[in-house]
Amino acid sequence: xxIKEMFITPNPYSRPQKKxxxxxxxxxxxxxxxxxxxxxxxxxxxxxxxxxKNSAGDYIYASSHxxxxxxxxxxxxxxxxxxxxxxxxxxxxxxxVEVCHPDWSGKPTQKAHESLVSLLVELCKKYKLExxxxxxxxxxxTGKTCPKYYVEDVGAFKKLKEEVKGKMKEDKELVEAxxxxxxxxxxxxxxxxxxxxxxxxxxxxxxLKLSYTL
Length: 214
Fold this sequence. Notes:
It is a single chain. By secondary structure, this protein is of the alpha/beta class. The chain has two domains: 3-168, Lysozyme-like, CATH 3.40.80.10; 172-213, no CATH class. It has nine helices and six strands. The chain has a six-stranded mixed beta sheet, sandwiched between helices. Helix 2 packs across helix 6. The longest helix is centred in the middle third of the chain and has 17 residues, at 110-126. The chain is elongated, with a radius of gyration of 20 Å. It starts with a strand and ends with a helix. The model has no long low-confidence stretch (mean pLDDT 93).
């Protein structure tokens, strides 16, 4: 996961520099503008510093801590110890993560998905959060259809949280060892060994293949 820093200029509308409270949630959003890049949207948030107004004549307050691009690059816009304007009342105790998408289905690209999972794992570990409870959607706070894909496909959202939970339990030393054996052609289904769902036949096959390489 590559993280690129594009911090918003301190200002009242998108980076007020208010100290955030104890982190209780990570709120997932969709960018709401299909086909745009993380960098584009970081610049938009920064541009709010001049005091832009919506069609009703009200000032726009918006930002997030992170934006994940379709290319998988993660842009950090607001430091985690500061409030970002992304989820109304939850702003004071949550990290906001915006996810770009190539079309109006809102479904992230595979690269964006992988970076989202990696970022969520990192944040959940850092703040000692249980992912199936702490990871929420903007919809869960305000009822807004955001992020669209995960609001419309509840199963996909549940799967995302379970994937994060599984990654948090991964044995890194085991994962690296499995990668070595896979590269040498000893195993062909790394997920079987990483997830600990192998059978007696799997073990027998592994022993035989290892004996051929010694």
